[in-house]
Amino acid sequence: MDQQTQLFPVLVCVLGIVGIVVWHLQGKARPMARLVVQIAFFASMTAVLAYSRLNPFRYDRVNLDGAQTLLVAAKTLWWVHLSWAVIGFIRLYLVLDGRPREARLIQDLVVAVVYLGVLLSILAFVFGVPIGGLLATSGVIAIILGLALQSTLGDVFSGIALTLGRPYVLGDWICLSDGTEGRVVSSNWRSTHLLTAAHNLVVLPNSVLAKVGLTNISEPDENHQIIVSVRVAPTRMPHMIVEVMHAVLDSCNAIVKEPPPTVGLMGIDASAITVELQFRVTSPAQRGPARNEIIDLVYRHCRANGLQLALPPESTLMQSAARSDLQHTVAPAQDLIDAIPIFSNLSQEERDTLAAAATPRSFAAGAEIVREGRSLQSLMMIKNGVVSLKSGDMEIARLAPGDFFGEDGLLAGMKERHDLHAVTRLTVYEVDQAALAPLLSKRPEIAEDLATHLAQREAIGTGSQLPGNQRERRKLDLLHAIRSIFRSQRENTNS
Questions:
Q1: Residue 323: band (very low, low, confident or very high) from pLDDT cuts 50, 70, 90
Q2: Pairing outcome for strands 262-268 and 404-405
Q3: How far apart are CA 220 and CA 226, in angstroms?
Q4: Average pLDDT across the chain, whole number
Q5: Taking the mean position of all CA atoms in its chain, how far away is CA 53?
Q6: 308 neighbors 319 (Cβ within 8 angstroms)
Q7: Strand partners, 419
Q8: I need a labelling partner for 380 at 20 to 30 A (CA). Which of 137, 256, 321, 362 fits?
Q9: Residues 6+ apart with CB under 8 A from 330
Q10: Residue 357 region by backbone torsions, left for phi larger than 0, else alpha for psi between -120 and 50, else beta
Q11: Element (H, E) at 409
Q12: What does the alpha-carbon distance between residue 366 and residue 6 come to, in Å, rounded to a whole number?
């Protein structure tokens, strides 16, 4: 090789080394710039080799002189840059094409194939190694390794199958046939990690995950159906029980209203009528709160409408004894006051006095109770039925038996922040200021509970979480307003 020809391998080596340095200086945060650098230097090296008529796909017998060593280094660097350019293009294509994060398994597989092909090409075209015999030897080694790593390879290929099939993606909530369920938080060559509702990390080998049946709760969306069975004593007609259960679902704030929840009669015998409440929640994480609210509302609506929950079939208690224990299922004003938490500290005499001052009032389904911007002049406690709180056309929340409203205008001189409508036929008990004033004088803790309730009611529908100091300041302002109103009323009464 003459002196002029020796300059071309030197130039290829210089371009290869400079390309590696510039490639590293770009950093991982700039994949497009890295790819441009790889292609530019690879094209320059290819042009130099083509101009010098040096073929990287042809083996040239290697001597121990410096010129041949430069040629070997130049060809090796050319093959390395070829592999990096191909790999950079593949990685960038899979990212820009919107592939999911699990596609890194396919990326790693393609990268491994590219590196293996380049390694064999360097051995064949640069060093003249007969790769036929090498492939035969590597086949025997591959069989031995395959038998030794059978379980690991099963996980690897199962992971590839799961990635190609895409039964789930990162972030999906899945449920396996053995009852295991959780959110997919990571996936690699060997295993998939699930974060369960108990905040435990479950590691599942891909081969196991590929064999069991799974349900993707996140597809097409995370709306999740729940079924709650209720056994009611057959003391009312079945259609009345269905209406009460519909009221339960209508008054629940934690479930999805579209598609509408349903109630089904599942069976009847001498001891019980069994009904199923079928409803949906926005995500699996809402199953617990929604079920808790439904159970609470079943109790409240059954108590308000005179329904009696049936004893379990295996119970040995006598039905007559059960009926005697539950004979006060219809909720008069006395039972309603007993069920409201803010009156829990009252004595029995005070509760009797308050119950005697409460007067019943009824509203038809769909009736308007009060408009936003106006105020009610009495505290209204819901005996049965459902009340809807709306702001404009948007429903904020619903109230059920045992809830109360009207305290804004009655206690703090405020106007209602929402429109109130009766969703179903509604019965309430009204208590005016004259009946509450003596209780607030004797029981200051009631005023504090009412102020807390008012502060929470004001936050409904705002979608904002105030800091604790601001919530406490608002509670103190409301408490001061309540005490001022009743102090003025007491002074007027005394005068």
A1: very low
A2: unpaired
A3: 17
A4: 78
A5: 63
A6: no
A7: 390
A8: 256
A9: 306
A10: alpha
A11: helix 407-412
A12: 95
Domains of the chain (ranges; CATH) run 3-148 (no CATH), 167-216 (2.30.30.60), 224-325 (3.30.70.100), 341-494 (2.60.120.10)
Return contacts of 386-389, CB within 8 angstroms, 24+ apart.
386/247, 386/250, 386/251, 386/422, 386/423, 386/424, 386/426, 387/420, 387/421, 387/422, 387/423, 387/426, 388/420, 388/421, 388/422, 388/423, 389/418, 389/419, 389/420, 389/460, 389/461
Amino acid at 380: M
DSSP letter for each residue of 226-243: EEEEEEE-SSS-HHHHHH
What does the buried/exposed string (b/e) look like for 222-245 if buried means 16 or more CB atoms within 10 Å of the residue's CB?
Answer: bbbebebebbbbbebeeeebbbbb
The letter for the amino acid at 435 is A
Q: With bands split at pLDDT 50, 70 and 90, how would you rate the model's confidence at 391?
A: confident
Torsion of Cα atoms, 84 then 121 then 71 then 61, to 10°: 180
Residues 385 and 399: beta-carbon distance below 8 Å? no
pLDDT confidence bin for 386, thresholds 50/70/90: very high
132-161, pLDDT tens digit by residue?
666 666 666 666 666 555 666 677 777 777
CB neighbourhood size of 487 (10 A): 13
CB of 339 within 8 A of CB of 440? no
Residue type, 199: H
User: Is 0.70 topped by the overall pTM?
Assistant: no
Query: 184 and 168 in contact (C-beta within 8 Å)?
Result: yes
Q: Of 115, 16, 10, 17, which is closest to residue 54 (Cα–Cα)?
A: 10
H or E, element range at 454? helix 444-458
Helix H segments across 27-103?
31-51, 66-96
In the sheet that 359-363 helps form, which strands lie side by side, from edge to edge?
359-363, 426-431, 379-384, 404-405
Give me the torsion for CA of 88, 92, 94, 100, rounded to 10°: 120
Q: Give 193's strand partners.
A: 186, 203
Structure-derived torsion over alpha carbons of residues 337, 342, 345, 350, reported in degrees to the nearest 10: -40
Report H helices in 97-217. 104-125, 131-148, 150-165, 206-211
- 109 DSSP β-pair partners: none
